[in-house]
Design a protein that fits this description.
The structure is a homodimer. By secondary structure, chain A is α+β, with helices and mostly antiparallel strands. Chain A is 54% helix and 8% strand. Chains A and B meet through β4, α3, α4, α5 and α6 of A and β4, α3, α4, α5 and α6 of B.
Chain lengths: 213, 213
Amino acid sequence: MVLKLYDYWRSSASYRLRIALEMKGVAYESIEVDLHPDVRAHQSDAYRRLNPQMRVPAIEVDGEVIGQSMAIMEWIDETWPEPSLFPADSVARLKARAFANTIACDVHPLNNPSVLKILKDDFGANKAALSGWYADWITRGFAALEAQTPALETPFLFGDEPTIAEICLVPQVYNARRFEVDLSEFPRLVTVDAACQNHAAFQAASPEAVKPA
Amino acid sequence: MVLKLYDYWRSSASYRLRIALEMKGVAYESIEVDLHPDVRAHQSDAYRRLNPQMRVPAIEVDGEVIGQSMAIMEWIDETWPEPSLFPADSVARLKARAFANTIACDVHPLNNPSVLKILKDDFGANKAALSGWYADWITRGFAALEAQTPALETPFLFGDEPTIAEICLVPQVYNARRFEVDLSEFPRLVTVDAACQNHAAFQAASPEAVKPA
């Protein structure tokens, strides 16, 4: 049975799972949940019944829809172990997960459209204030990650192949560029992103590659 | 060698790791990083050098300090496998991680003190607005979790023992109560929290149990 992925081309958490599935060579059916502000399909009653969290991505397993990209990533790796999304060494695996979670827990949640909407509607944030907020969380997170990233001796952060760290980094860099966040202070992160742009799985999973016509 | 945990009694992400370590019966040395607004030890130069993310919890492994509670939780489980912090069944494991990540990614990051400070300083949020924001993210997250939680047939969410799901739930319920968030709509979550309050690991790890004299 083909895996069903509730997906949106521009959702960076969905983008993570598309990369993971492409790295594994796992075929999946993408079911579009249109997050565009004029559509908000994730807030429809139909989608709420499927996924009370009203977010993407989500997958269907045993007839149930389950969300949370980082949990799904672990399940993907357990279900299709090769190639692993994690370094082989225990401490490297800890570092890769910590790198990924700095993005998934400390950056991405703050810049979710639902947060920006509340800032605008309830806190009177104008466009400049929203851009400042958006850039600030990326800059804080990336500054910590850049400081923790050693000079690269391999093409990717943890060796010759990308791991969960790059799977979370690349969609966040995509968001940063989309919102014109200055990345000049993060040369190592930019170098890793560039290496990923030449990797077939990252290419096939990119927003531009999967954007509906 | 005893594991060093950079810890703060009231940090709910630190509380998660204390529970995990108590469940495993792993002795650890708690190194206090005082997050109190009058102290802000996490923002000191000394701590920044150790952990550029300037957050707790963090652990010291092989002479390096590494943060991110959810990454550390996976490392703890890999390093001391028994008793597991995860359900044995693959789909249950996915659900437990998804439950935990709903808190770790969708609730907790929005209510971090660093976020509240920006809302106050840069967006002019008064006390009522901050309380509303705080309660709103907990309520959204808990509403989704309550809707996804079946009628309990076991003492805990995934069987006879707590898992990563309860390890994330209980500290978030603690925060909710501390900020007087109404939990009356979440009877299943409250029942699970009550079961955990009778569990020795949760008791030993609680803020009150570890609060400095």
